[in-house]
Amino acid sequence: xxxxxxINFKISLPNFFKPxxxxxxxxxxxxxxxxxxxxxxxxxxxxxxxxxxxxDDWSFEENFYRYNNIDIYAYDGSLxxxxxxxxxxxxxxxxxxxxxxxxxxxxxxxxxxKHFQKKFLSFYNNSINLNLDKILIDINxxxxxxxxxxIEGNEYRLLNDILKFQxxxxxxxxxxxxxxxxxxxxxxxxxxxxxKIIHIHINNYSLSNLNIPNLIEITFSRIxxxxxxxxxxxxNDNPNNPKLDDxxxxxxx
Length: 253
Fold this sequence. Notes:
Low-confidence stretches: 4-8
Order of helices and strands: EEEEHEHEHHEEEHEHEHEEE
Largest sheet: 7 strands, mixed
Helix content: 10-25%
CATH topology: Rossmann fold
Distance between the termini: 9 Å
Shape: globular
Number of strands: 14
CATH class: Alpha Beta
Strand order of the largest sheet: 7-6-5-10-11-13-12
Structural class: alpha/beta
CATH architecture: 3-Layer(aba) Sandwich
Radius of gyration: 18 Å
Number of domains: 1
């Protein structure tokens, strides 16, 4: 069970969510939604970034590349011509001048060793979409892979594959959706994953009808300090929705 104090904006989570004390967290991506805190050493020590779920925000990938210009493989099947046309019209009607040419900025970034494929992850072996198994097998086994995943609830279908290849993964940044419906799946994954939680953040855009956080962002790493972590004191994170306060997290049961 997860408890929320709506008055004081505090969430109580079970202890298996409690993170290890991080060594050196830095923020990659936008100031609010789309940005994540990660371990700096994981960036510079990784050989490949695989990013599942881009939409119209690739600021995380841009920031990552500035620290380490390694190969980037990004996947999102929703970025069709219709998507970009609708985005252009919206920007035009709302006088968002800087966003009018987002498509060209996107094309400018994803070139050379920064690869993008308009494909969804598939959970079956077929020639149309992608399979996590195949992606990781095709990459050299000596490569250290940093994974960012925000795929709107489909992450639960891939947790077993992540565990299967966990020895290849240097870090995982993942957003869990519909947490109230999948709490046992999340618990099982955390307890069986060799990488440990070094940061956890409640996405304040959504809470369920049961006052349980729908969206939780978690950063996993092999790098952490073997000390007690008085989380969330001195937390250097930002609310996803800048119009609302962030939630304070307690781990006490």
